[in-house]
Amino acid sequence: MSIQAASPPTPAFRKLRQLSALVDLRHNAVPAISLAFILLVSLAVVLADVLAPYDPLHQDLPAALSGPSAAHWLGTDTLGRDVLSRLLHGGQPALAGVVLALGVFTACGTALGILAGYLGGWVDRCVGIVVDMFMALPNMVIILAVLAVFSQSQTASMITLGVLASGNLIRIVRSSVLALKEELYVSAAVVSGLTDARIMARHILPGLIGPVLVQLSIFSGVALSVQTGLGFLGVASKPPAPSWGGMVGEAAEVMSAHGFFLLVTGGIITLLTFAFGFLGDGLRDLAAETKKQPAASLFRKPAARGGLSALPPAPVPGARLSVQDYCVGFHSDGGVKETVRNLNWAIQPGEILGLVGESGSGKTVTALSLLGLLPSNGEVTGGRAYLDGKDISGLSETQYEDIRGKEIGLISQEPMVALDPSFTIGDQLTEVLRLHHRENRQALKARALDLLHQVQLPQPEGLLSKYPHELSGGMIQRVVIAIALAGSPKLLIADELTTALDVTVQAEILDLLRDLRDRTGMSIIVVTHDLGVVADLCDRVLIMSQGEIVEQGGTEDIFYSPTRDYTKKLISSTPNLVKAL
Ligand SMILES: Nc1ncnc2c1ncn2[C@@H]1O[C@H](COP(=O)(O)OP(=O)(O)OP(=O)(O)O)[C@@H](O)[C@H]1O
């Protein structure tokens, strides 16, 4: 397979780029002008008490329906009240209604969309039914019914509008979450042992800002139309208090003789609705420009347990981890295909074991299956795996959560994309540390610094406030190792951890792993296709080909006296190694 990520740094910085593009409206004149107009009108409405030249209720009947003048810039209405002052004050219930509807729309749409997309299963199905209901109901009829029940309350009508309209947002958020779940930094957060709630709040939610902003902008226009429409109908606002919809209604009655009155009252609503629409279009175009193919996932949720042999073999005594008659298969249309077959091996405490083989030989699948992290169509089809004598094959998701990060740590193939680009190194380290230690901020910070010291990063204090893109590849790799060590696992699985690094940094990272093993007694499984790494670091080697173990033994034995042709060919295909032997 290749449970590989797209090449860095594209996926890691996609979200940052998307966010910056969304706020970079300078090059998009129409959305930028629209945004400026919306802000200007909102500010004027908020400051109505200061800006309005007259009391909006003050009547001057002799001056009724006079056109624009120095005294009344936008003229007067049928009772001689100043139109500008009434527009400024009337904007307050209009914008308050829009803000309320937006709040409910966002909360409902985002929360239900995230839950449906992230949790899937029955939650997704239930949310789907709710969305279908929202879409099928006639919104306006329901809002009028709510107004009748709640004594013409604008609050009730806007809350109802927000809820009913959120169906579309739920669908959009749900599909965005499905894509975000495939991001490697989300996968890495799962491996670290973070709870679903925390992953949704910290790693999924920030990635939704783009699509949610687009929908908010479009819905603002709808909410404004509904609010002013209700005002026009004389419901949801009580005269003589000014309201934009009410003013349009009043102007419509005298439109043939006094068209200017309708022009300014209807004009502000029309212009704002257009501005919301243009802003939404601009945001959508920018989001589309920055959209890239989703990165390949490191893994998906584990498959259900199935097909394990009825009588488990016994664990190897004293071994940190042992696997026996271990098989992993994948479901496809043609049934289950076993890609890893009859593995029998063990790793001792403090040992470094190399898992070697060509691409597709089953190394990553074997490693991920131990953490319950196979793609959704994969499962352990036979045999058992034991961690310190305890059977860990085919556990439930909750049981695996207790193992990930705490008993077994994983360093994924792509360190650059295992970190969330929106959070500092300090945030990401303390987030994982908080899982394992119920301590205050200061104590967690001290632990984070200690971990950065352990992975030999210079000046760790300064690093805590840095973002991943400010670090070199070698430094990122060390941070990822530090995060994997946060739960003090007894076994660390390092999947191709030096592949993307240059030779000098590679050597430093290998030294670091050796040093960590010596100091902590941790066992380390090094998954690699690089025999040089194995020769340098590993005590024992396991050679895999086409899902099976071809040969295993001490590193020196394997390199100096291989017994199998496949191993001999593998060694001879690494010229530098041959020279060194
Ligand atoms: N979701 C899947 N469905 C079907 N087959 C899969 C799936 N995931 C992996 N495989 C198969 O499992 C086999 C082993 O893949 P694995 O990634 O473990 O290889 P690897 O030895 O780690 O190679 P690499 O070094 O390239 O990652 C591959 O032949 C692949 O086709």
From TrEMBL:
<dbReference type="InterPro" id="IPR027417">
    <property type="entry name" value="P-loop_NTPase"/>
</dbReference>
<dbReference type="InterPro" id="IPR000515">
    <property type="entry name" value="MetI-like"/>
</dbReference>
<keyword id="KW-0472">Membrane</keyword>
<keyword id="KW-1133">Transmembrane helix</keyword>
<dbReference type="Pfam" id="PF00528">
    <property type="entry name" value="BPD_transp_1"/>
</dbReference>
<protein>
    <submittedName>
        <fullName>Dipeptide/oligopeptide/nickel ABC transporter permease/ATP-binding protein</fullName>
    </submittedName>
</protein>
<dbReference type="InterPro" id="IPR025966">
    <property type="entry name" value="OppC_N"/>
</dbReference>
<dbReference type="Pfam" id="PF12911">
    <property type="entry name" value="OppC_N"/>
</dbReference>
<feature type="domain" description="ABC transmembrane type-1">
    <location>
        <begin position="95"/>
        <end position="280"/>
    </location>
</feature>
<feature type="domain" description="ABC transporter">
    <location>
        <begin position="323"/>
        <end position="571"/>
    </location>
</feature>
<keyword id="KW-0813">Transport</keyword>
<keyword id="KW-0812">Transmembrane</keyword>
<keyword id="KW-0547">Nucleotide-binding</keyword>
<keyword id="KW-0997">Cell inner membrane</keyword>
<dbReference type="InterPro" id="IPR003593">
    <property type="entry name" value="AAA+_ATPase"/>
</dbReference>
<dbReference type="InterPro" id="IPR050388">
    <property type="entry name" value="ABC_Ni/Peptide_Import"/>
</dbReference>
<keyword id="KW-0067">ATP-binding</keyword>
<dbReference type="Pfam" id="PF00005">
    <property type="entry name" value="ABC_tran"/>
</dbReference>
<feature type="transmembrane region" description="Helical">
    <location>
        <begin position="94"/>
        <end position="119"/>
    </location>
</feature>
<keyword id="KW-1003">Cell membrane</keyword>
<comment type="similarity">
    <text>Belongs to the binding-protein-dependent transport system permease family.</text>
</comment>
<keyword id="KW-1278">Translocase</keyword>
<feature type="transmembrane region" description="Helical">
    <location>
        <begin position="255"/>
        <end position="279"/>
    </location>
</feature>
<feature type="transmembrane region" description="Helical">
    <location>
        <begin position="208"/>
        <end position="235"/>
    </location>
</feature>
<dbReference type="InterPro" id="IPR035906">
    <property type="entry name" value="MetI-like_sf"/>
</dbReference>
<feature type="transmembrane region" description="Helical">
    <location>
        <begin position="29"/>
        <end position="52"/>
    </location>
</feature>
<comment type="similarity">
    <text>Belongs to the ABC transporter superfamily.</text>
</comment>
<dbReference type="InterPro" id="IPR003439">
    <property type="entry name" value="ABC_transporter-like_ATP-bd"/>
</dbReference>
<feature type="transmembrane region" description="Helical">
    <location>
        <begin position="126"/>
        <end position="150"/>
    </location>
</feature>
<dbReference type="InterPro" id="IPR017871">
    <property type="entry name" value="ABC_transporter-like_CS"/>
</dbReference>
